[in-house]
Amino acid sequence: MKGELRVAGAPISWGVCEVPGWGYQLPPERVLTEMAGLGLTAAEFGPEGFLPADPAGRAATLRRHGLGAVGGFLPVVLHEPGAGPVIDQALDDFAAAGAEVLVLAAATGRDGYDTRPELDDAAWKTLLASLDLAAAHAADRGLVATLHPHVGTLVERPDEVRRVLDGSVIPLCLDSGHLLIGGTDPAQLAREAAGRVAHAHLKDVDAAWADRVRGGQVSYTEAVAAGLYRPLGQGDVDVAGLVGALRGAGYQGWFVLEQDTVLTAEPAGPGPAGDVRASLAYLRSLSLPSRGDDPPNPPARTARDKPDRGRSARA
C-alpha cells in the first residue's frame, strides 16, 4: 500500500452495540486487548456504558491499551426540537477525552433499525438545522461532527443523502455498508463528493442480502444474523475504489474498520478478531495513491468469509 492510511477499530466489530437485546456483549478488556493485538492504534468509543462515562477515564482506558481516541457513533433524534443539549454534551465529553470526530445518526426515536417513519418538510427542516448546529458547535470545540447515513434511520436512501448534502453544511461519515444497503454506490459517492467526507466506516456487504433488506423481504436484523456483512474484499462493495477515490482527493481522516457483529455467546478461538484481521490484510494489500496524487473531486457543497452461524454484523 503506497503511503499509510489512518486505520482504527470499532467495538461493534466485536458485537458491542447500542441496540437493546442486540446480542452477547464482550467486556472492554477483551475487545481493546484484541484491537491492540491486531496492530490498531486508535478506536471509536462504542456505545454508552462500554467505556467509563467520564472523559478522563474513557481516555485512560484506551491509553492503557495503547489506543488513541477517534470519537464515536451517537444516534440522536434530530427531527424534533431539543437535540442541541444532547449534542453539546457529547461534544464536550468527546473533546475532554481527546477525540476528533462525532458521528451522528438521525435516529427515529424507536429501538433498533428495522422500522422508520417518513418525515414531512417541517421535520426535515428541523433535522437539517440540527445538523448545521452540530457542525458549528463541533468546530467551536476543535472537533468535526459528521452525519452517518444508516439503515433504519431517517437518512438512509440516496434521495435522503442528497437532501443532507444540498440542505446542510455538515460533512458525511461515509459508511460503505450502510450506503450500499440503502441504495447508494459508496465508491461513486466518494468520487462525486469527496470534499464532503470527513470520516469513513469501512465494511463489506453481501449484495444479495442487501437487496432483500431494501426490498422489504427480510428485516435488517434478520439479514445481519444471516451474514449480511463480510470482511473487506469478500463482499460486493468496491472498497478499493472508495478508498482510492478519497485518498486521491486528499482525504486525511480515519478509516474505521466496522465488520459489525452480533454474538450469541462468548466466542471460541479468534472470534470477531479473525474478521478484523482479514479486513486489515485486505487493506494492506491495496495499491493506493498517496494523498492528493490525483486531482480532488469538487465537493457537493462547500462547508466549513461470511461469519459463522453464531455471529453476524451491524454498523
Tell me the name of the CATH class.
Alpha Beta
**Secondary structural class:** alpha/beta
Terminal-residue CA separation: 26 Å
Number of helices: 11
Form type: globular
Low-confidence stretches: 294-315
The percent of residues in helical segments reads 25-40%
The percentage of residues in β strands lies in 15-25%
Tally of distinct domains:
1
Strand neighbour order, sheet with most strands? 1-10-7-6
Rounded mean pLDDT is: 89
What radius of gyration results from the CA coordinates?
Answer: 18 Å
How would you describe what is shown here?
The protein is of the alpha/beta class and 315 residues long. It has one domain (6-304): TIM Barrel (Alpha-Beta Barrel), CATH 3.20.20. Helices cover 37% and strands 15% of the residues. The chain has 11 helices and 12 strands. The chain has a 4-stranded parallel β-sheet with strand order 1-10-7-6. It has a 4-stranded parallel β-sheet with strand order 2-3-4-5. Strands 8-9 form a two-stranded antiparallel sheet. The two termini are 26 Å apart. The model is unreliable at 294-315 (pLDDT under 50).
